[in-house]
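Deliverable D5.2: sample structural annotation.
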Amino acid sequence: MQARSAMKKPSVTVASVRELDREFQLKKRFDLKKRSNERVAVLRGPIELDHLPLDFRQLDRFLGIPRRDKGGNTMDALIGLIIDGDVTVKGAVVNAEMDFGPFLLVRGDLHARDVACGGSQVRVEGALTLSGALFGFYNHGSIVVEGPTRAACVLTEEHVIRLEGGLVSPVVRGGNFLEVSGKTVPEDPLALRLLAPELFDWSSWVGLGPAGQRSSKAEGESELAFIQLERELILEAIAEGRPLVRGKRAFKAPPRKTRTPTGHWRANMHFLDGVCVRADLAGFAVCHTPRWRDAEFGRLYGYSTTKGWGATSTPGGAPISLCYFIDAENQRSWRILLNDGVVVVVSGGALVRLDVLNAPAPLHRIRSVTDGLVVCGDDLVVHASSGKTWNRLEKGLPQGATGAFRDIAGHSLRDLTAVGTGGRVMHFDGESWHSLEAPTQVELHAVATTREGIAVVGDQGTLLVRGAEGRWRTFQTGDKAPLVGVAVLGERLFVASRLDILELAGDTLKPVETGLTPSFGGGRLHACDGVMWCIGLTELARFDGSTWERILCPDQHITLDQKPTTALPPPGAIHLEGLA
């Protein structure tokens, strides 16, 4: 997962279409019938952004606008974004949904790496300058640029693109909806040579002649080929920052994935987090997509070695992290962090309440300590609770600093350690935060408490161990793959990347042989009560100190010919009774 930008966040204001229409003439520029009361965000330029997501809810989260009000009620998503001035986007402007999305009005020039839009209406009043691709797909949205447009390539697929100020770019076009300076752009078969063949579905071609023509189904006619682009592969390449134009870093398509029937989301289960509660009980946050920021739905799964599996759907969002908490009155509950910054409380097999944190930035992890709960996220946000009310812990944090805390651990609310971007490791002593001056600048992904201190893992195969005396020891894996998991099991220290599990033996990180067939990869680690779990993105394994066991969830491994093995529960249904 990419880190968020280190750029300073611009200030944002929110108003209704009616309130903004006089200044920006929104109803003349966009189709906003019967939407006068809906909300629009405004940024005043010139500004710089790391990236710009244009899908519903994603835009709200990116701008730090809460999804729920203080009463826990879900508010409507932003209907659009106005940038009043010039804007530079370091990465891509992306609207991945084909059918709809917030509109974008730029009242100046737009500089970006790529622009890819499906259902959103986009209008740029100045120039559009892209180092990469302009990609428009499907016929529900539109892209209009009043000034000149320059890009490495333009790809269209049945998408209205009007470039009123001219175009300097090769064009790959499917359909007849591209206009430059008021004229329809002809097909340009030679432009295909610029791009990787994996970007196209060649099954739509009947035959390709030397002039780039094909024979139509009507005998005797000849027409230029209609290009069918591989939309998902193009969007994946843009999201990962890979260029589409041929060259030394030319796009190369990954192996084609087996598609899953619509509705059988459980075939695509992704374990985003997990906790070992005790030797016989564990819980997992499950989403139907690894792109958890985009998801609207997910489930909490509980596994008991004696009672098997149970699950419950989460209300209104996807779970990204979870923990198990026993309060001062010995009340036991699951605490589930959703991707919209809400903490769901489930106890005794019932949904108890929703805690709306209204955090100013996305959150990543929730953990329990002996006397409370802690949550951490972007912009170095940390919230703490003794069970009901939440308070932000910010004293001692560097003023104006950017970055993120990716994980947090500790023994109590007066002894917390948070780790994250830029090699940042900070300790909270109950009064204030203090830097522990870690000897690295790489991004750190996970932290665990040890008997004498802490263990931290991150990019470049980095493991940092800090003892009671405050001295750091640094270890590194041979392949330097990013480490995402760390756990202490008795006197043993384990770490894991997404591909391997390793154990610290002396001064060496040695790969662990699980003995599982097929072989098990890696993932997040969590241990307690003499048991450790490895939570891979799509698989689980349990280790009792001597033997590894692959644990299969009954809602996994659905093929095109199979039906789900467990019924999807009705909204609000609870299936965790007896597991607590």
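Annotation notes: Confidence is low (pLDDT under 50) at residues 1-7, 202-226, 248-267, 558-580. The longest strand covers residues 87-95.
The annotation will be released with the project's public dataset once the embargo ends.
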